[in-house]
Amino acid sequence: MRAARVRPTSPEGTPYGFPGNVAPPSAIEIHDDVPKPQVSKPGELLIKVKASTVYKDNLEWNELYPPSHATLGNDFSGVVVAVHDSEQIFRVGDHVYGMTHANRGGTWADYAIVTTEEAVKRPDNLSWEEAAAIPGSALTADQALFKHVGLETKVTEKSVRKRVLITGAAGGIGTFLVQFAVLAGHDVVAASSSNERNESFLRSIGAHEVVEYGDFGALDKVDVVVDSVGSQVLADCWSVVKQDGGTLLSFDACSWGYREAHKRQGISNGKEGVRALYMIAEPSRDSMARITEHVKKGNVTGRVAKTVPLKDVRKAYESAHSRGLGHGKVVVLI
Q1: DSSP character for 148?
Q2: Torsion sign (Cα): 37, 38, 44, 46
Q3: N or C: which end of the chain has fewer CB within 10 A?
Q4: β-strand 275-278 against 75-83: which pairing, if any?
């Protein structure tokens, strides 16, 4: 079968690895002779992949650097073609979508093994492309807000409405963060690099306030910051989160260790009351069930900025960093 894989070493033979020697996009290769995977244990499904997506930081994931070639791709939509004899939930022919665990990948290929924790049945109102554009971004948003930060999934008279700042709000994950927080009943401040480019869109998906990164100083304090940008934007977030009981969460790949770095730099004075968190999304049937209900009700959908065939996935990875793509995911058609 065909699969897009990462060459484990440079042309000179130097092993790729993170951090320090991240593989370049040129290390992504299309192989036509990869063995078709087989179901081997309970909980596994073999799917014919219809579509996957591109993450702009895929090559920065530690899990992609085993001794041998790694097949990339985590989001998927596809058709179940084989199940384990003990399987009770899924049947051959089911249309499914979801996200594989970060330590496996595997969906930039004709066929992939996924687990019953990673897959749910695809709603009829989604195309293959739209379905693939949802899981990774939506799972990250759902788990950031409701699992790690601990926001109420539905604000009631007996619960507390929070003021939430979301950075990277116009991006793939940020879009879901804004929508899920608004749908839950919280007040959302959406931050991006350009109001001119993004304000109209962000307000159309429910943001109550819209701000550019350089204008945090003019904001009233927020209860929660969810950051998807990292670097200087993340550093600036400390000034806007409430210092007594506020929460700051980042999941940008390069933000790993930001809490410890903040303390080492000696700038945590006055920030001891801030709960600082880092997270990596994991497959979850509970999260996907919540997301799928939103999809069925028409509250959210998969936004597709561009589709490419598997043979062009290297170029697609390079283009995933382009601001000209609009508000949506780069989807790989298998």
Answers
A1: I
A2: positive
A3: N
A4: unpaired
